Amino acid sequence: MQVVGSPSSMVYSGVTHALKVITSTEGIRSLWRGVMSVVLGAGPAHAVYFATYEQTKKMLTNAAGGNANALAAGAAGGVATVVSDALMNPFDVIKQRMQLSGSGYRNIFDCAVKVFRNEGLRAFYVSYPTTILMNMPFQSIQFGCYDMFRRSLNPSGSYSPTTHVIAGGMAGAVAAALTTPIDCCKTLLQTRGASVDSEVRAASSMTTAAKIIYRKEGMGGFLRGMRPRVIANMPATAISWTTYEYFKWMIARRDTQHNK
Question: With a threshold of 0.85, does the pTM exceed it?
Answer without folding.
Answer: no
